Amino acid sequence: xxxxxxxxxxRRSLRGRxxxxxxxxxxxxxxxxxxxxxxLPSQIRGAANDVVAPLLNVLERPVRFVQSGLERFAGVSDxxxxxxxxxxDNERLKQWRxxxxxxxxxxxxxxxILKVPKREIPAAxxxxxxxxxxxxxxxxxxxxxxxxxxxxxxxxxxxxxxxIGRVIHVGHWTSRVLLVTDLNSRVPVRLERSGDLAIAEGQxxxxxxxxxxxxxxxxxxxxxxxxxxxxxxxxPDLPIAQVTAIDEGVITLKPFGLLxxxxxxRIMNYQALPDVDAILSxxxxxxxx
Length: 289
Hints:
With 289 residues, the chain is of the alpha+beta class. The protein is 43% helix and 25% strand.
């Protein structure tokens, strides 16, 4: 028994050594072929990959299944957390909605009591930018709406964020809009937070400058600037710009309108409300005559 077992172990050892030498010689042979640049080893590796690929695909399916299950579980967990966040946001929005509805009702009641007309401004036309007037002395755009669409000179033009300019030339099918950043643009404005009045002037760049502000005016970086409605060209409370810098008395504004990315704009059919004081004055003068 002992001799037989010892003989079998010796034979296995010899076969193992023989196999090792075979694989070693085989590897050296292929390394030699690789050094010669015959390309045969690469072809053999490619063929081996092709043979093994179906087997790997079969073996990979359970791994993919488990991985997909884990990703779904993690996704469900993320969805649950996101759902909880959305529920909180929804509750806050409901509270804001109730507050907005209450303010709207109070505003409507005050309008009825004071007999103040509504400030809803219809659109004369919605137009697309078809041309840009560039250069050091001009900031304007050409839109594809004119008198045929009800556009007249002087109407304000807005985008989805705020005022971008006013109509200065009108044709039958097109109009030219002077942008608020043009050097010739002047917009009467007020600071939303403090109510101080001023003028927003264009600088022929991407920013505006706040001028003619009272020395004791309360202005801070981040303040919103709205149209005051003075002069009757622009409707009151229209978003204009935001204060971005205050440097040695120079107040810089960034327009709300996306002037560098304009595509479609809305031309507002705005007609200023009559000056009540002027009407009463004229009426009194007429009565005296």
